[in-house]
Every structure is written in C-alpha cells, then in structure tokens.
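#struct-help
A.M.: can someone run this one for me? Single chain, 136 residues.
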Amino acid sequence: MKPKRFPPTDPREWLRRARSNLVHSRAEADEVDLAELCFDAQQAAEKAIKAVFIHRGEAFPFTHDLEALVRRLRANGQKVPKYVEAAKVLTRFAVVARYPDFTTVTRRKYGRSVRIASAVLRWAERQIAPPSKRSP
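D.P.: on it. Structure tokens below:
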C-alpha cells in the first residue's frame, strides 16, 4: 500500500519523499551506478532537512548545499547534532552524480552516504513528530 500523500506545504510530505529517496539509495544492482545511489542519499538528506524548515515555519533557500542548510537552521536556533552536520559530504552528489564524469564512488563511500542520509532522516522525523509520539 502506498503511503498517504500530503500537500507540499506539509513537512510530512517532505519526509515521505525523503524516505522514498532513501529506499532508492539502497537499490543496489549490478546495473546501477553507485554515484546515482549516492544522489538519492543526498536527496533524502536534503528533503529531510527542508522538512524541518517547513515544520518550523521557516523559508529555506533553494539550494542543494546541505552545509548551508544546516548552518541556516542553526542560525535560526535549531539544535543540530554533529552527525547531521556530516551530511555536508553528500552535497557533491547533488550535481556530479547526475551526469557521467570521472567520479568514482567506492562501496565504502556509498555505504557511508546511505548511513548519513538514514541518520539525517531519523533526526528530522524526531524533530517533526508530535511530542506524544517522540521516543524518550
């Protein structure tokens, strides 16, 4: 069953799309380039971070630069853990992974990308979850 869709102004829709990208990022197959999977990991992290902006009622810049997005959240008073800051390494995949070039992604870099995106998504979900549904 497909998950319920929400309006684009609802942070839950951004999280839904982030989860979809994360699932794509884990779709390893011989025919799939690891750089493209890293692109999906970057997109998952980006959409999760932007969901936090929407939840807070704040505008976000239209950028793929995860470091800039995190810096802006911090400047606006959001506590951001170091492991979310680590998402800045995914920024390069927002562009270079879209087109053939000389970028080589190792299995190690790929695995790290998916782990970072997963952690960012979990963090964003905790920021957006109603207080009664947050884990202690």
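A.M.: thanks! The chain has five helices and no strands.
D.P.: also worth noting: Residues 11-130 form a domain with the Four Helix Bundle (Hemerythrin (Met), subunit A) fold (CATH 1.20.120.330).
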